[in-house]
Amino acid sequence: MANSNYSLKDLTLYFLKLGTWGFGGPVALVGYMHRDLVENKKWITEDEYKEGMALAQLAPGPLAAQLGIYIGFVHYGLLGATLTGLAFVLPSFIMVVLLGMAYKLYSGLSWMQAIFYGVSASVIGIISISAYKLTVKSISKFTLPAMRANWLLWILYLIGVVITVITQREEVLLFILTGVIYMIIKVPPQWARRNPVLPSFLLAGMVFWESGNNELVKIGLFFLKAGAFVFGSGLAIVPFLHAGVVQEYGWLTESEFVDSVAVAMITPGPVVITVGFIGYLVSGFPGASVAALATFLPCFLFTVILAPSFKRIAQNNSVKAFVGGITASVIGALVGSVIIIASRSIVDVCTALIALASISSLLFIKKLQEPYVILVAAVVGMVIKGF
Question: So what's the pLDDT on residue 25?
Fold first, then answer.
């Protein structure tokens, strides 16, 4: 039984602490929530936790943040969802803004360049491992029977890889199209015609597609699109951000973008908070605030709107198939982005070795967390550049 004898203040303080000390990425963060809130404190039931996880995987948005918002919503409604979401995101947001200030001040100095020489190469390795894990989890294992059973997902996945590498950009409409294709093939068309949820996704895509002329408006609308089409791991947002902030708008250079991903890796809380760092580099504190708010707003809205009727929605095979198709192409796009970014960030033998060492460490050393890998890479970078 869940223990309802806890206050909204207690829950908010818990998520403030988790956002401050919670390292390890989305999988680790949702694990901490289960351990603390279900097993230890018994504030929510196992069923409530599982429903929150299912909703977080079906709807767009960073996994851990969505689950936190849902947990706040379970017993305290809209106010609970708002306060837990803010408490979870705020600590890491403050950290990335402070790091953004330091980065702007010192990025031209040789010691800072030496640090990010190693860190940037390490990030390529970390993203590569994340792309591999997401592929195995969301598409299938790399075995012939599994790949044969999920052949359509693999085709959509490869389409995401190839189109991203060729065009060097991400297309939201491609993600929607792959979702529709998978749904139509896996579910009889009449189900798709009756499904009222799919049009809302399509309308969301159309609404988020246009952008204005003002810089903050452009930042807001771009990150709103990013938040609306990210499923599961926060790293799934990387290809979308890369295409926009580097390729389309030219807000950041290639090295600045990789550094922004590194900053997200060394801070606690949701990985998606890298948007705050990017927003700060583009347009100072207003840019950071708008980018963070716009990215997490779709996640918040989807959660509080879908939560009351989620049990009915979760059983709709059309919705599951639509999300499955989108997820396949999004992860494929992540792999494509890793290829593009690596081709520009691995500049010599040393950076290649650092990337390979990062991959090997995460593969073979159990429970090794990314921040430690990045810190070691920073030291290695200073040693190499120091000589």
Answer: 67
